[in-house]
Amino acid sequence: xxxxxxxxxxxxxxxxxxxxxxxxxxxxxxxxxxxxxxxxxxxxxxxxxxxxxxxxxxxxxxxxxxxxxxxxxxxxxxxxxxxxxxxxxxxxxxxxxxxxxxxxxxxxxxxxxx
Length: 114
What we know:
Layout: E1 3-6, E2 10-11, E3 17-23, E4 33-38, E5 45-50, E6 56-58, E7 66-71, E8 76-81, E9 90-96, E10 108-112
Parallel strand pairs: 2-10
Antiparallel strand pairs: 1-3, 3-8, 4-5, 4-9, 5-6, 7-8, 9-10
């Protein structure tokens, strides 16, 4: 299984970005999908996830600012990020939730800076 993330960029504080992830997982529509991020010097952490039924859950730091959606017909999951803050800077990854070690992709880099 491969995950391929895209959409990362340099953005000013307060700006928005939409990340995309395409998965080759044949079970995509039946599993929860998560977005994770890793910042320098820290372990990768969960940002939020969306269940197969469409239920969403987010960490407190992004609630009200980030939104996860999925398109099962395309095997894609998205992360809409609004009101970005410098502390949102990091490498963003998608994976099943909980994550499977062998499924991590290369990630996409998000930098929030003026």
